[in-house]
Amino acid sequence: MAYLARVKQGFGSMFSFFTDSWSELKKVKWPTRKELITYTIVVIVTVTFVTLYFWGIDYLLTILLRFFNE
What we know:
Blueprint: H1 2-27, H2 33-69
């Protein structure tokens, strides 16, 4: 009987979790289409700049290490 009570409690807490999650999702202020596009462009540009920055550092360090190893 104790096992069945734990299983029932587990399903009850799972149901409670999904109910609470759904009610929290209703409170979310979802971005508009324009905001979403703007945020996406900002992320892509930022990732591109950071990628180029680290690529440049890696490239310069590679050149320096080859110069000092010769």
